[in-house]
Amino acid sequence: MILSADAETLWGAATGLARAVAEVSRDPGRPALLFFTDPARTPEPWLTAAGLPPGAAVVYRSFGSPDARSVAERLRGLTAERGVRLLIGLDADLAEAVGADGVHLPERALDQAGELRRRHPRWQVTGAVHSVATLATARSLSAAVLSPVFAAGGASAHRSALGVAAFAAAVRAAPVPVYALGGISAANADTLAGSGACGLAGVASIQTAFGRGIRI
Predict the structure, then answer these.
(1) What's the whole-number average pLDDT of the chain?
(2) DSSP secondary structure string, 143-209?
């Protein structure tokens, strides 16, 4: 399996960030790249999951979809085969049922992080953060996902982009490792080198690079 040029760029940038942070945090097991699913924007997330390299993760967000269990089981099968982690959005029961590697919490549910980590000490519990003030209080997370770094689509389309300098300053003051999310692409991923991010996260850019850019 050969990665597309965009996939190689994103993966190289993500793993470079992860290695730099792991040397300080001594946690080399954290995923370097998070693929966030969305029912509207990524209707067939298993196609992208099948193209992700070992050391990446899928964050499956069902948003109440009636087929959440079957999709989660399909993703668990694919990710387990590939050495890719699976996090479930806001549904600890579903995460337990399919044997996921953790959960991802929206900003409104960050107060659940401490209890989830106590109940499941091996889980990765990540959380969405959209402000520097909230990031400063997110001490119970395994890692925060701060967005938007660049102008983004989807739910972050109405939010002002932080920019690399402000993002890096927020990371330096953060109590937990931080992923960069929002408008990240192969064209700008390398600008985050030295920002202190523990990895990269995305929706459409990862789907395009890893889901459609794979050649066998």
Answers:
(1) 92
(2) EEEE--SS---GGGTTSPP--HHHHHHHHHH-SS-EEE-SS--TTTGGGGTTS--SEEEESHHHIII
